[in-house]
Amino acid sequence: METVTLNNGVTMPILGFGVFQIPPEDTERIVNDALAAGYRLLDTAAAYGNEEAVGRAIPREELFVTTKLWIQDAPAEQNTERAFETSLRKLGLDHLDLYLMHQPFGDVYGQWRAMEALHHEGRIRAIGVANFYPDRLVDLLSNNDVTPAVNQIETHPFFQRTADQDVMREHGVQIQSWGGFAEGKNGLFTNPVLSGIGEAHGKSVAQVVLRWLIQRGVVTIPKSVRAERMAENFDVFDFALTDDEMASIATLDTGASLFFDHRDPAVAGQLGKRRLTD
């Protein structure tokens, strides 16, 4: 398995398995299938509602486990520690490999200070953020002690985030993709550019997309509920895209989200109203 090295020296698999939108009652079985296929990075979140099921499936010593902190009201320091303890208990772990601030809303600075404290205590190996646009990311890292190790953002062939990645690279932040397959939007799985590249290598469109992300140095966490598809998605380390093929995929970028824009006031208001219960 290829890995990336985060800004604090922690190594992280470049290909993992995400459990977003997997029902809790199915999660344990599906995570076991993913582990059998070879995945050693698991990505969940408090907001997904399936941390306990993930915890039942994981052999702690073999994995890199990520979960995420949902939006916390001020004073976020106390709220964040409580949310962290809840996630840790549900996962059945004594520490986390990576803890991400899930959204750039709420008491962001209070949340980050609490995450820094947990990191300094050795309870989290690395801390990071998700869904931060470059301005918010640079503001956060410029005004705090610990630079986020990871920023997990929507990244796929139709929203490639190359400029965002350049900013992250400049500041030592690892880009991670969510929605790498764009949930099939814009006809991704039948796109002629991607299909043609797949035919040239004897690979599926999904494998081409994952290989494209990996060659860009983007950590990716594809989700599937089918064991055969999990194995297919994992089988992307025996071929490489050419420079011309990478350039062809670059032409697919629309520069816009296919889901929601975190800079949209309506999105901020909608997410800000959502609260979790233990």
UniProtKB/TrEMBL annotation:
Domain of life of the native organism: Bacteria
Keyword Oxidoreductase applies: yes
Pfam families for this protein: Aldo_ket_red (PF00248)
Originating species: Streptomyces castrisilvae
Keyword terms: NADP, Oxidoreductase
Family of the protein in this entry: Belongs to the aldo/keto reductase family.
Domain NADP-dependent oxidoreductase per the UniProt entry, residue ranges: 21-252
Coiled coil segments of this chain: none
Stated name of the protein: Aldo/keto reductase
